[in-house]
């Protein structure tokens, strides 16, 4: 017997509806999948120590960053470039990758870092001594935690850097701490959007002045087409030495 046309059409419509539901669920699942593949920064911190030693300003920075790498195929997530020039120096680069061991109930070290030095190519500048340290983690697999540590020494206190509180990755916790002698006067200013999410504290520790900025749960920054430089929008603090005492007299750097 021939199948009734009405019943065939009914089952065809049901099949089409099910297929639409499958496609709908699949499309809904795509952004969720992408979100799960996005690595994040667990913690990011800089501790800057500025000392007045024999009337000479010394600036040293200790930098730490910890990331959780969701997918090892995203090589960019565990490769770093640290710039430096004749006015700065990158020292004591160290780090390790680790994987959670269920039997031991803790992270177990699986690899380390490879460091190389390269000249920075700047097409709009005829000559520059700018270089960078390329830091790459090895033995990274899915769901790996990486820890990076290094120091940076500034040879000219007039040319200090800035600190950003937002990144292209989600940040759990980030902190900037500046520790300096009381004979030094520091200047600083916050720029960018959402600076209200940053907490600030000024304290004294062991006879040193301490400035601390903290932020938590910072969403990743996403660039848009034809937008200005991200630095216009990303919350960041610019800091510098305003003056210090030399032979008992104040010496002005920047105002």
Could you please describe the fold and organization of this structure?
The chain is mainly β and 255 residues long. Helices cover 13% and strands 53% of the residues. The chain has one helix and 15 strands. The protein has one helix at 5-36; strands at 40-53, 56-69, 79-84, 88-101, 106-111, 113-119, 131-137, 144-154, 162-164, 170-180, 184-191, 199-205, 208-218, 236-246, 249-252. The strands form three sheets. The chain has an eight-stranded mixed beta sheet, with no helix packed on it. Strands 9, 11, 14 and 15 form a four-stranded antiparallel beta sheet that branches. A hairpin with a 2-residue loop joins strand 1 (40-53) and strand 2. It is globular. Mean pLDDT is 83; it is low at 1-35.
What layout of secondary structure does this protein have?
Blueprint: H1 5-36, E1 40-53, E2 56-69, E3 79-84, E4 88-101, E5 106-111, E6 113-119, E7 131-137, E8 144-154, E9 162-164, E10 170-180, E11 184-191, E12 199-205, E13 208-218, E14 236-246, E15 249-252
Parallel strand pairs: 1-10
Antiparallel strand pairs: 1-2, 2-8, 3-7, 4-5, 4-8, 6-7, 9-14, 10-13, 11-14, 12-13, 14-15
**Structure class:** mainly beta
Taking Cα atoms only, what radius of gyration do you get, to the nearest Å? 26 Å
Low-confidence stretches: 1-35
Strand segment count: 15
Shape: globular
Strand order of the largest sheet: 5-4-8-2-1-10-13-12
Q: Determine the number of helices (DSSP H or I, runs of at least 4 residues).
A: 1
Write the H/E string, N to C. HEEEEEEEEEEEEEEE
Biggest sheet, in brief? 8 strands, mixed
Helix share, percent? 10-25%
Give the overall average pLDDT: 83
| Straight-line N-to-C gap | 96 Å
Beta content: over 45%
């Amino acid at each position: 017997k021939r199948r009734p046309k009405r019943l065939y059409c009914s089952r065809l419509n049901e099949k089409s509806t099910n297929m639409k539901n499958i496609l709908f669920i699949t499309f809904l699942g795509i952004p969720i999948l992408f979100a799960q593949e996005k690595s994040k920064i667990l913690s990011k911190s800089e501790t800057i120590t500025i000392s007045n030693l024999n009337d000479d300003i010394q600036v040293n920075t200790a930098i730490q960053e910890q990331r959780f790498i969701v997918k090892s195929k995203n090589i960019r997530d565990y490769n770093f470039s640290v710039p430096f020039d004749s006015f700065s120096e990158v020292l004591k680069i160290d780090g390790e990758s680790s994987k959670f061991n269920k039997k031991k109930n803790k992270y177990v070290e699986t690899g380390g870092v490879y460091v190389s030095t390269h000249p920075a190519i700047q097409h709009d500048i005829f000559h520059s001594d700018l270089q960078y340290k390329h830091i790459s983690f090895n033995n990274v697999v899915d769901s790996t935690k990486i820890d990076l540590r290094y120091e940076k020494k500034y040879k000219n206190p007039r040319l200090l850097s800035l600190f950003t509180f937002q990144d292209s990755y989600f940040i759990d916790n980030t902190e900037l701490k500046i520790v300096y002698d009381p004979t030094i006067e520091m200047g600083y200013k916050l720029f960018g959007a959402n600076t209200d999410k940053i907490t600030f504290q000024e304290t004294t520790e062991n006879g040193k002045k301490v400035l601390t900025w903290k932020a938590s749960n910072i969403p990743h920054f996403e660039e848009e087409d034809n937008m200005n430089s991200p630095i216009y929008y990303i919350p960041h603090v610019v800091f510098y030495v305003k003056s210090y005492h030399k032979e008992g007299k104040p010496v002005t750097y920047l105002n």
